[in-house]
Amino acid sequence: GLDDRFDFILMNNNLINGLNHYQYLPNSYKSIGNDGNHFNQSINAPTNNSVPPNVLQALYDNSDHLPVMAKIIVDQHFTYIANVNPPVKGYAIIENGKLTVKATNISSYNSIKLFDMQGRIILHKTLTTYDNSPAVTNLPPLKNGIYIVVLQSDYLPGYTIKVVGNAR
Predict the structure, then answer these.
(1) Is residue 140 over pLDDT 60?
(2) Which of 39, 62, 104, 142 could covalently link to 165 via disulfide, CB atoms 3.0 to 4.6 Å apart?
(3) Are 146 and 75 in contact (CB under 8 A)?
């Protein structure tokens, strides 16, 4: 019955309060296929009109979890994507207490930010690369995990790279 398994979207203060260029749209969180009338009953009996019948049957057949969704408002300036010729390509490496970032046109970017997976800024530094050589900077001690590197510019779209960090 529909009483024991549902999934979550975890929220934090940044998401709720609209910090860091994104915000949760109030009252948009919902569990797909849950019409609120099937507690401890099969999701598709007797009737459930919250989704089309084929979607409801797929939810019933494939899992005892229901997907959830929420609408997120994203600052357009932060997410603007333009046609960049050539496309930006790059990499980031964290090792031996240093972050190394290489990207095409890296000298066109004026700052670099390193975020942890909770959205906290670990590093914010002005870039001073003039010849497209890799940017290298010292880091504070990090835990093992996944981090996000964002290159920012006043006139180019931001460029984001995922990187795995290893503790020293």
Answers:
(1) yes
(2) 142
(3) no
Instruction: Count other C-beta atoms under 10 Å from residue 115's C-beta.
Output: 17
Rounded to whole angstroms, the Cα distance separating 148 from 150 reads 6
User: Distance between CA 166 and CA 142 in Å, rounded?
Assistant: 7
Cis, bond preceding 141 (omega within 30 deg of 0): no
Cα(25)–Cα(41) distance, rounded to whole angstroms? 30
Which of 94, 98, 111 is CA-nearest to residue 165? Answer: 94
Residue in the block written with tokens 């006139």: 155
Which residue in the block uniquely carries the two structure tokens 């930006």?
88
The CB density around residue 161, as the number of other CB atoms within 10 Å, is 20
Q: What is the pTM of this model?
A: 0.47
Residue-wise pLDDT tens digits, 9-63: 888 888 888 887 778 888 898 888 888 888 888 888 878 888 888 888 888 888 7
Q: Cα separation of 27 and 16, whole Å? A: 12
